Amino acid sequence: MEQKSSKSLQKLSELHRQHRGLINIMPLQTGGMLTEAAKKALIEFGDGYSVCDFCLGSLCDITNPPVREFVHELLPQFLGCEVATLTYGARDGIFMVMHSLAKPGDSIVVDGNRHYTTVVAAERAGLNVIEVASSGYPEFRIDVNDYIPLIEKHTPKLILLTYPDGNYGNIPNAKRLGEIAQEYDIPYIVNGAYAVGRMPVSMRELGADFIIGSGHKSMASAGPCGVLGMKKKWEEIVLRKSGTYSNKEVELLGCTLRGVPLITLMASFPYVKERIDHWNEQVSKAQWFSGELEKLGFHQLGEKPHRHDLLHFETPTFYDISKHVRERGYFLYKELKERGIWGPQPGLTKAFKLSTFAANQEQLKFVINSFNAILSKYS
Amino acid sequence: MEQKSSKSLQKLSELHRQHRGLINIMPLQTGGMLTEAAKKALIEFGDGYSVCDFCLGSLCDITNPPVREFVHELLPQFLGCEVATLTYGARDGIFMVMHSLAKPGDSIVVDGNRHYTTVVAAERAGLNVIEVASSGYPEFRIDVNDYIPLIEKHTPKLILLTYPDGNYGNIPNAKRLGEIAQEYDIPYIVNGAYAVGRMPVSMRELGADFIIGSGHKSMASAGPCGVLGMKKKWEEIVLRKSGTYSNKEVELLGCTLRGVPLITLMASFPYVKERIDHWNEQVSKAQWFSGELEKLGFHQLGEKPHRHDLLHFETPTFYDISKHVRERGYFLYKELKERGIWGPQPGLTKAFKLSTFAANQEQLKFVINSFNAILSKYS
Question: Mean pLDDT throughout A186-197?
Fold first, then answer.
C-alpha cells in the first residue's frame, strides 16, 4: 500500500500531456487552445486567488487586472447583450438561469440536439424537459417552428436552443425562435458554447434573453470558464444579491472564476474578438474538408452544406478495418497519433466528430492524406 | 468609443500582476501558491479541455492524467473519508451538499464565524441559517456545545462548522461536534478550506459526514478548485446520477474541474501531502510572529495561544497615522509594497489579517522590522 501510494505520488509530479503539439482536430479542444498572451498570463496569475489582489468584494468589479471593464463593457458589446457575468462554463450558466427563473416541477422546451448538460442542469433544478425532435438521420435539423405546438401545450418557463449543437454542428434558425419567444413571451436561452468566440453571434440580433458562452470550448481559454449575457430586465433575478451580503450575487455564490481561467479568457479576448471576423474562411475550410473526406467514402452527418467547423462523419471503412485488427477500434487513434494528429476519440471508428477550426489548410491536407494512407495500409 | 475599446483590448494583451514575487502574507493566498511541478503542469495542460483527452464520460474516472487514482485513492486517504470528488471550490462543495440533503424552508445550524459563502449557499438552496454565536471580542471562540440547544430547538437538516474560520483562524472542537452530530443523528459538514492542505485533518477522526477543501486557498493550486469528501452513505444522495445519463452526477452537472486547476491540484499534491507534517512548525512560527507584532502595539484577535497561521490584528497606531497622511488608509499598503511585502488588503489600517504560512522566519523578521520602521517613520 505504502509502495503503491509513493508510486502514485511520483506520477503526479511528472504530469505530461501526450497530445501536446499535435495537429488538433478534436472538437472539444480546437476553440480552447490558448494564445501566447494567455500562456504568459497563466504563469503570471497561476497562484490561487492571485486574480483577487485588488478585490473590493466583487470579482466582476475588480479593476486590476481590468475585470470590471472586461465584464461590464467589452463582454456585453461582444455578446450583443446588456448585462454580462462570468461562470464556470456553459452548463453552469444554464443552471444559474434555470434555477433563477423556474421552480421544481416547471417545464422547459429545448432542442433535441441539446448538450447532455442541459438535461442534467434541468434535473438539478427539478424541471421537466420537453424536447423538439430533430429531422433525424442524416441531417438532424431542428425546425424552430416545431417549438410552437410544444409551447402551446406545456407553457414552459424557459426555452433553450443549442446554437450550434455539439453533435452535428447544425446552426438552427435562432432568430426565428427569438420571434416565437417574443410572441409567446417566454424567456429564451441561446446556448452558444460552440458559437461565442468562434463565429459572429449577437444575443440582441437573435432576439434572445440569455446567451451562454464557454471559455474553454470556444474562447481560447483554460477551463473551467464561461460567460453569460442577458437582457437588463433579468439582472435583478439571475444576478440577485444576497439578503445578508448586499454585494454578493446568490447564484454566483459570491464569486465564480476566482482564478487563472479568467485571466486566460481576458488575455485571449483581443484575439478572439478578431478571429470571429474570419468566420467565413472557417466555414469554407470546413466545407472543403468535408468534401475531401466524403471522397474517401466518409459520410458527413448534419446540415449540408455545412456552416460550422464541427463535423460528424460516418466512417464505415474504418469500422470494417477495426473488426479485423488486433487493436480493434483503437487502431485509428494509434495510426493518427503516429502521424502527429489528435482528433477522433480513442476507440471510435464507426463515426466520429472532427473540427477544422484550429488547423490550417496545409495541416488539414495532411490529415486528409493521412486518412487516405491509413485506408490504403489496411485495404 | 472605438478608441477606448482599442485601449481596453491593448490592456488585456499585457496583463501583469503587481504582487508577483513579493513576500506574501495575504491570508487568501499563502496556501494557494503553486509548486514548481504545478507551474510546469499549467503550461502542459493549459489549453481548454486538455485534461479530457482520454475521458470516457466521467472526469473523476480519467486515467491519463491519473485523475481516477487521485480522486478515488489518494484523496480519500488524505481527507480521511470514504468517497471524494472534485468541486470548483469550498463554497461549491457546500452548496452541493446543502442542495442534496435539504429542501427549501429547512434549517441548518452553523458557527457564527462561518464564511460569507455558507450563508449565500444556504440562501441559494432556500435554507434558514441559524448561527451559534461566538464568545465575541476579542477571542471570538466557538463553543460547539452551544450547537445543542439550537439543534433541539430547530431540528436542522445539516450542521456546519468552519474549521478554522477565515476571520480569526480559530480552531473549534470539531471532534466534540462530531459526537453531538452522531448523538442527534444530523449530517455534519466540516468546512476545512483553511485546514485541508495546511494542517493534518481527518474527516473520520472528527466524526464528520462531509469535509470541504479548497485547492486555491490551501492546496497549492490555481483556482477555481476544491475537493469534497464524504461518508460512503452519502454518495448516492450527493453524487446521485442523472436519470437520463447514468454516468453523470447531477450535482456536478456531469463534470466540474474540466481544466487546468485540477492539474495544478494533482501536481502539487505530493508536496501538499508532505507539508502538513510540518504543521507544528507552522503553528510555532505563527505564535512567535504574533508575539513580535504585539510588542509593536498590535493586538491579536482570536484564540490565544494561536493554533493557525491566519492571524487577525488590531493596529490602532496605523489607524492613527492614516488619519493624518495624504494617502489615508492606503499609506500602509504602499509602504509595505515598497519594501516588497504584500499582505494587508489595500486601504486597511485599523485591523487586518495576515498569514505566516508561506513566508519563512527570515522573511517574517523582515516583515516585523518593516512594520516597526513604518511606525517610526510616521511617529
Answer: 98
Q: Answer yes or no: are the C-beta atoms of A194 and A308 closer than 8 Å.
A: yes
Which residues of A are less than 8 Å from B26 in CB distance?
A: 53
Task: Give the strand pairing for B310-314 and A351-355.
Answer: unpaired
Is the Cβ of B124 closer than 8 Å to some Cβ of chain A?
yes
Cα(B351)–Cα(B314) distance, integer angstroms: 4
Q: Does A260 touch chain B (CB under 8 A)?
A: yes
Give the side-chain half-sphere CA count within 13 A for B217: 23
pLDDT per position as a tens digit, A98-149: 999 999 999 999 999 999 999 999 999 999 999 999 999 999 999 999 999 9
Q: What is the dihedral of CA A300, A303, A305, A309, to 10 degrees?
A: -70
Nearest 5°: CA angle at A21, between A15 and A25?
110
Residue A199 β-bridge partners: A196
Q: Chain-centre distance of CA A318, in angstroms? A: 28
The C-alpha atoms of residue A324 and residue B202 are separated, in whole angstroms, by 52
Question: Which residues touch B334 (CB under 8 Å, ≥6 apart)?
Answer: B327
Cβ of B37 within 8 Å of Cβ of A250? The answer is: no
pLDDT tens for B89-126 read: 999 999 999 999 999 999 999 999 999 999 999 999 99
A 14-43 near B (Cβ less than 8 A): 14-20, 26, 28-29, 31-34, 37-43
Question: Hey, which residues does B136 pair with through a beta bridge?
Answer: none
| pLDDT above 90: residue B324 | yes
Identify all chain A residues contacting B91, using CB atoms and an 8 Å cutoff: 253-254
CB contact under 8 A, B216 and A95: no
Q: What pLDDT, in 10s, does the model give residues B195-217?
A: 999 999 999 999 999 999 999 99
Backbone dihedral angles phi then psi of residue A309, each to the nearest 5 degrees: -75, -15
Q: What is the DSSP letter of A106?
A: -
Residues of B (166-205) whose Cβ lies below 8 Å from A: none
Interface predicted TM-score of the whole assembly (ipTM), two decimals: 0.97
Contact A48 B243 (CB under 8 A): no
